[in-house]
Amino acid sequence: MTTEERSRKEATGTGAPRSLAESLRARDDASLAALLRARPDLITPVPTDLTQLATRAATRASVIRALERLDRFAQQTAEALAVAGDPASSGELLQLMTGDGGAEADPVVADAVPHALATLREQALVWGTDDRLHLVRTARELLAPTPQHPSPTGLGPTVAEATAGMSPGRIQEIITTVGLPTTHDAVSAVSSLTGLFSDRARMAALLATAPAESLEVLHRLVWGPPYGQVTPDPAPRLRWLLDRGLLLPTAPGTVVLPREVALHLRSGRAHRHPEPLPPAVEPAATHRPQVVDATAAGQAYTALATVEELLKDWDEGGPAVLRAGGLSVRDLKRTAVALDVPEPVAAFWVELAHAAGLLASDGEADERYAATPAYDEWLERPAAERWTRLATAWLAATRTSGLVGGRDAKDRALSALGPGLDRSSAPEVRHRVLTLLAGLPEGASATPESILARLRWERPPRGTQPAAVQSAATQPPSDDLRTRLAQWTLSEAELLGVTGRGALSAHGRALIGEPSGHAPAVEPAATGPGDKLPVHRQHHRPAAPRPPLTPAEQAAAASRAARLLAPLLPAPLDHVLLQADLTAVAPGPLQRPLADVLGVLAEVESKGGATVYRFTPASVRRALDAGRTASDLHAFLASHSRTPVPQPLAYLIDDVARKHGHLRVGAASAYVRCDDDALLGEILADRRSAALRLRRLAPTVLAAQTDPATLLEGLRAMGLAPAAESAEGDVLITRAHAHRTPPRTPPEPVPDGPPTPDATLLTAALRAIRAGDLASTAPRKPTGAPTAGGDLPRTTSAETLATVQAAVLTGESLWIGYVNAEGAASQRVIAPIRVEGGFVTAYDHTADEVRTYPLHRVTGVAELADDQQ
Predict the structure, then answer these.
(1) Which of 551-565, 637-651, 793-807 has the lowest mean pLDDT?
(2) pLDDT (tens digit, 9 = 90+) per residue, 117-131?
């Protein structure tokens, strides 16, 4: 049974519900489950019965949350009910939405009203039958117009509300001026004036006599705001309106256009522009799917290389953590220069590595950022699996890198990896943007404007919501935030390789759980009020967004995305091309052992489709310092080059190796020793050595007043190739030691309110609510003295024991009051099975299981009425 069918069943029921609780009580389990899924805050914690559920559903915070999550037309329908009478009929609602012409004048709106009304009913914002529709009182208060917070419809108060403080004499003057008979009291006078303004024919006749200037004033106020300012001596055009009650004073110098007058001028329509249909997502360009997938795969490879380069740059310990947390502006600039990207893009990669658990602070006294142990495990995975880890972390992350560089509510700067970047709506917006792209034919990109327009319709910006709802919000304006989140999603998806040329790739489609190879038809564009109803009505309303993927579904989707991406990524190469200008060209990605060694032996000169490495004396010396010998380097290059080793490169290696270690530096503070005393003499005579403050201790030994590291750097700056040695005189091999943090978990996303309950929780909650409702509403036989408010009568221990023992014999159910060990009181319906040792064992209908209760904790007992047995 669909939501609309359930609503129709409720609407045509024989007994109209008298309250929201009664309306919920008439629902089946499927309808209640739909309510709890749409409004998960109602189940946190689980209500004891349906009366408590109805009370919670009408609280201000819960109603605001529900109103904010309605689509634009459902909000417009609720706004129309707020200005209608209470209760209102479905016919009155339809007239407010379509105008006096009804369904014939605007069939698209008329076709969408039942669906919107069913949505409001499903979410417990509206209850009652079709001829007695009630908007929840809290929603009516939030949507009702006030001078401070005008209604989104632009309608003002009714005649009765606007004349509440007006003197009876003034009211009599107004009805006399408009030609109505005088009455003996103000109430009947107001009723008579309301009847005139609500009568289309008589209102048309009255306005036909109005001056053109007065009609111009009415038309300026008709679509709102309905309030205007007047002077103590109004102009004739205003005086004519005031004398006839077409404008009513609400405060000194302020007048309002009554709701009935505005509705007449609007031809009965509550909204100027009803929006029954979502804006269509418009294709911007169409490419072959193979081109899109190849482009996205190329960008995915670049994303992997960028994250690796970032963490390799921070391998020995990255930037320091600010005292308030996060990365300093200077360190972010340095990172952007190192990655050769703009600063906002650098912030994105830093935050992405953090979200994937590859980067964190080390937590030491001199706290710095560094790679985590998970980074080393990540490097060993196939490239496609490494990409899916980044992509799934991006989809679920609430940290938003686009905010970096902005200011928070307390005017504090927002920094990368710092606090204040979480936005709980980010995952929902990302997933929705990608889902909209998936709705286009494969290979088609969408115009950003149409994506933003669709998102605004599905979740209207706070600027179009009632001011009361806006003022109750605690987060930044949703319009600005959601719009920026959508824009960031489009650019980040392209950077990450989820999309290619603006279109969703096959692996991106698989990542969000959408089937590939299916190209649904593009939704028709929204039609205007005067357009004819298209034939295929099933396309008028958008499909409901799919529920979030379960962890198992997410894992399966990531695995499928990896399988689709893997064939598109370039295979790692095991060779380079050595050139005579002391460079090596890697025509593609290199296998990790080859890339690691080459990264030590040479400097990266340029990147792109092919990476160019340059060999320098410093890079060769770095490889020798790491423990490699000249013969090792010659053999390595010969085995991994598709071209012969050039003679200049061989000479460079041999020349640096010949000088390497000829000088030895150790700790005295520091000393230099060399078998060639002439070389030491040259060093002493060199002006560049003055800063080292050297002096000769022996023909082959110089002492320095600096530490060994500074001495090494100083001698290398002079063009020498010294080697460090240990206290035993052995050459020290210097390798870069990777700095890792202790094991860290990725940052947890900040939820956007209570999570949507799963099927298991819904089943248990519905069973508990139904059982609690049975206990609180089951009719009882009168026993003992009557009690106020239908409370359980107090019974003595002897009476309680006798009633329970009798129920064991007769098999009847009882209604009991029970206080547990923590002192919490509850009402339960039980079917006693046996009584012994001061305990009663019974089937508890409330808990739907057999339980044992101490009799001394039973506060009272009553038999159920005969029709409840």
Answers:
(1) 793-807
(2) 999 999 999 999 999
Residues 655 and 672 both lie in one domain: no
The CA distance from 538 to 498, in Å, is 31
Question: Does a structural domain hold residue 226?
Answer: yes
Q: Which amino acid is at 482?
A: R
Angle, CA 207 vertex, CA 205 and CA 213 arms, to 5°: 155
Q: Tell whether 758 is covered by a domain.
A: no
Q: Of 428, 375, 372, 374, which is closest to residue 398 (Cα–Cα)? A: 428
User: For position 559, what pLDDT does the model report?
Assistant: 93
Nearest to 96 by CA among 260, 239, 245, 333: 260
Domain boundary, last residue among 79, 109, 143 = 143
Tokens at residue 315, please?
């391998």
Structure letter (DSSP) for residue 692 = G
Which uninterrupted H or E stretch holds 849?
strand 849-854
Dihedral, CA atoms, 722, 727, 731, 736, nearest 10 degrees?
Answer: -90
Total structural domains within the chain: 6
User: Which of 111-125, 282-296, 416-430, 474-488 shows the lowest mean pLDDT across its residues?
Assistant: 474-488
pLDDT at 741: 85
3-state secondary structure of 29: helix
Based on the fold, state whether residues 102 and 203 are members of the same structural domain.
no
Q: Is residue 552 within 8 Å of 569, Cβ to Cβ?
A: no
In a domain, 568, yes or no: no
Domain end call among 636, 659, 682? 659
Rounded distance, CA 298 to CA 102, Å? Answer: 56
Strands 248-251, 254-256: pairing kind: antiparallel
Say whether pLDDT at 470 is over 50: no
Q: Is the pLDDT of residue 537 over 60?
A: no
Tens-place pLDDT, residues 849-859: 788 989 888 88
C-beta separation of 484 from 531 below 8 A: no
452 and 437, same structural domain?
Answer: yes
Query: What gap in Å lies between CA 800 and CA 142, rounded to an integer?
Result: 49
pLDDT at 523: 43
Determine what percent of the chain falls in helix, strand and coil, rounding each to the nearest 5. 50, 15, 40
Same domain assignment for residues 220 and 291: no
Distance between CA atoms of residues 281 and 452, nearest Å: 9
Dump strand ranges (E) for 178-312: 227-229, 248-251, 254-256, 283-286
CA 684 from centroid of its chain's CA atoms:
67
CA distance 448 to 454: 10
How far is Cα 186 from Cα 45, in angstroms, rounded to an integer? 50
513 plus 365 within the same structural domain:
yes
Cβ burial, residue 96 (10 Å; 0-12/13-18/19+) = buried
Cα distances (angstroms) measured from residue 625 to each of 524, 598, 863: 68, 14, 92
Q: How far is it, in rounded angstroms, from Cα 212 to Cα 64? A: 43
Residue 245 and residue 369 in one domain: no
Q: Report the alpha-carbon distance of residue 493 to residue 491 in Å, rounded.
A: 6
The residues pairing with 508 across neighbouring beta strands, listed in sequence order, are none
Residue 254: phi and psi, rounded to 5, are -125, 135
Q: How many helices (H) and strands (E) does the chain have?
A: 36, 25
pTM: 0.77
Domain containing residue 460 = 283-525
Cβ(367)–Cβ(310) under 8 Å?
no
Instruction: Write down the pLDDT at residue 743.
Output: 87
396, 425: one domain: yes
CATH code assigned at 840:
2.30.30.100
CB 500 within 8 A of CB 490: no
Q: Is residue 530 part of a domain?
A: no
Strand order in the sheet with 254-256: 227-229, 254-256, 248-251
Residue 337: HSE in the Cβ half-sphere, 13 Å Cα cutoff: 6
**Mean local confidence (pLDDT), 257-281:** 92
Look at residue 540 and tell me whether its pLDDT is greater than 60: no
Q: Identify whether residues 97 and 122 lie together within a single domain.
A: yes
